[in-house]
Amino acid sequence: MAADGAGAAAFQAQIVALTKMSAEATERSVMLRTVTTNLQTVKKVADERVQ
C-alpha cells in the first residue's frame, strides 16, 4: 500500500509539473504571436512607404 501512495504522489507531482510547463508554453506562444504580429505590422508600413 505504501508503494501505491508513493506512486500516486509521484503521479500528482508529474501532473503539477506538466501543468506548469503547459502554462509556460502557452505564455511563450502568446508572446511569440505578439512579436510576429508587431513585425508584420512594421513590415507592412515599410512596404507601403517604399511604394
TrEMBL record:
It comes from the Bacteria. This is Nodulation outer protein NopA of type III secretion pilus subunit. It comes from Mesorhizobium plurifarium. The lineage of its organism: Bacteria, Pseudomonadati, Pseudomonadota, Alphaproteobacteria, Hyphomicrobiales.
